[in-house]
Design brief:
The chain is an alpha+beta fold and 503 residues long. The chain contains 16 helices and 23 strands. It binds SN-glycerol-3-phosphate.
């Protein structure tokens, strides 16, 4: 058998391809950013064709740099930014419209109408999600209603929908020339169209958004021994490799962090933060503003569920300091700047750029910086930004403890922001719980590789995978209880200042 497994990680800001060996060690990677298209306030789009081109390029470059070819890969996994909606013409392969990204809030009227019309409870019960702009269904509805000819094409079966996993799987397996139209239950569980219990598309949910069923991909297991398909020799791998793993990126990170036991959790720090708690085969319904979601489905096994706290803006708040305010030149400098001060100097920053997600779900919220006095500097703002990442995490950890009764004794972390030592120390201080980072911090790509490798027998069991997990660094809490309580009370007060901002 070949010695490696590959994974495409199609994220919000970039696409990467990684290759792993049997020990879960990184062998090669290449990564390329794509354009963030911001046509008006609250709108965020990506060009699906650009994403496919980037995907081709990262695969080719990583393989070439490592001196490997398709024959060295036992299987390929795909993982992706979730919820982002692509609608394309299956006859030509052309998208009808740009991908509408998960952060986009243009569908706020669609979301609030659902609640007003009494459909919110049905959605919560069946899909495990609150009506919000975040999920795919409203985005598909918007395209059907606003782009000429799409509704007719959808009814004819020519216009099809997919998240970016589906878009890439379709292209990798041949596109117009026989590409497969598939997804997995983790991605499907974020559309607002899938019943969490049956793992099938639900006609009542489809009717809420006027979406023809034939637009939707087939739902197959996240780790799929039957394969979704094989890559085409004419594609970027220049050979046939089984496509055998597909997971939304946050669920993939949960697998990469080997959170296979109920009660285990991970927190990924990317553009946003996403904390997932494995609840086993039990479907736990949140009463505290979390999402119920599919964690993974391996082969013919029962699906495993998770509770999720999704936070829209964390790492992207640091990017905002760089790109919009220009007070830092790169993410690493946020740490150096924040270290110039001993505390936040009374400043709190609530980066509610896309409204507030978990546990608040307030699309009427907008960002606020509060507590300013003449004494404050850029350094306080940088520090408040890092703290906002940690306080938002504390909000969702609190909700998770209330929903599940599970009290975390350690928080497993991964993602780009975990390179920021000060931020991780603040996270331990603000939570009062140790924070632990694994050696392989690219857990998202690793999780997709694991799902694909399990399907083809490259790894025999989840126990194999657990042996690959090693701690790299641990941060212990240093604040006392009084500091922690005072800091959190300030944060909660700051959050109230962001609400009711948009009518
Ligand atoms: O739900 C959105 C999430 O999947 C995006 O993750 O890492 O691409 O920002 P990321």
């Amino acid at each position: 058998m070949a010695d490696y497994v590959g994974a495409v990680d199609q994220g919000t800001t970039s696409t990467r391809f990684m290759i792993f060996d049997h020990g879960g060690n990184e062998v090669a990677r290449h990564q390329l950013e794509h354009q963030q298209i911001l046509p008006q306030a609250g709108w965020v789009e990506h060009n699906p064709t650009e994403i496919w081109e980037r995907t081709r390029a990262v695969i080719q470059t990583a393989l070439r740099t490592a001196g490997l070819g398709a024959g060295d890969l036992a299987a390929l996994g795909v993982t992706n930014q979730r919820e982002t909606a692509v609608v394309w013409d299956r006859r030509t392969g052309h998208p009808y419209y740009n991908a509408i990204v998960w952060q986009d809030t243009r569908t706020d009227r669609i979301a609030s109408a659902l609640e007003r019309e009494g459909k919110g409870d049905v959605i919560r019960r069946k899909a495990g999600l609150p009506p919000a702009t975040y999920f795919s269904a409203g985005k598909i509805q918007w395209i059907l209603e606003n782009v000429d000819g799409v509704r007719e094409a959808a009814e004819r079966g020519d216009a099809v929908f997919g998240n970016t996993d589906t878009w890439l799987l379709w292209n990798l397996t041949g596109g117009v020339d026989g590409g497969v139209h598939v997804t997995d239950p983790t991605n499907a569980s974020r559309t607002m169209l899938m019943d969490l219990e049956t793992l099938g598309w639900d006609d009542e949910l489809l009717s809420f958004f006027g979406i023809p069923r034939r637009m939707l991909p087939e739902i197959r297991p996240s780790s799929n021994p039957d394969f979704y398909g094989v890559t085409r020799a004419s594609g970027p791998l220049a050979g046939e490799v089984p496509l055998a793993g597909d997971l939304g990126d946050q669920q993939a990170a949960t697998v990469g962090q080997v959170c296979f036991e109920p009660g285990t959790a991970k927190n990924t720090y990317g553009t946003g933060n996403f904390l997932l708690l494995n609840t086993g085969t039990e479907l736990v319904r949140s009463r505290n503003g979390l999402l119920t979601t599919v964690c993974y489905q391996f082969g013919a096994n029962k699906p495993v569920y998770a509770l999720e706290g999704s936070i829209a803006v964390t790492g992207s708040a640091v990017q905002w300091l760089r790109d919009q305010l220009g007070i830092i030149s790169g993410a690493a400098q946020s740490e150096a700047l924040a270290r110039q001060v001993e505390d936040n100097g009374g400043v709190y920053f609530v980066p509610a750029f896309s409204g507030l997600f978990a546990p608040y779900w307030r699309s009427d919220a907008r960002g606020a910086i509060v507590g300013l006095s003449r004494y404050n500097t850029n350094a306080h703002l940088a520090r408040a930004t890092l703290e906002s990442i940690c306080y938002q995490t504390k909000d969702v950890v609190g909700a998770m403890e209330q929903d599940s009764g599970v009290v975390l004794d350690v928080l497993r972390v991964d993602g780009g922001v975990t390179a920021n030592e000060l931020c991780m120390q603040l996270q331990a201080d603000i939570l009062g719980v140790p924070v632990s980072r694994p050696v392989v911090a690219e857990t998202t790509a690793l999780g997709a590789a694991y799902a694909a490798g399990l399907a083809v027998g490259f790894w025999k069991s989840t126990d194999d995978l657990k042996r690959n997990w090693h701690e790299d660094r641990r941060w212990e809490p240093q604040w006392n209880d009084e500091q922690r309580e005072r800091g959190y009370a300030g944060w909660r007060k700051a959050v109230t200042r962001t609400l009711d901002w948009v009518d």
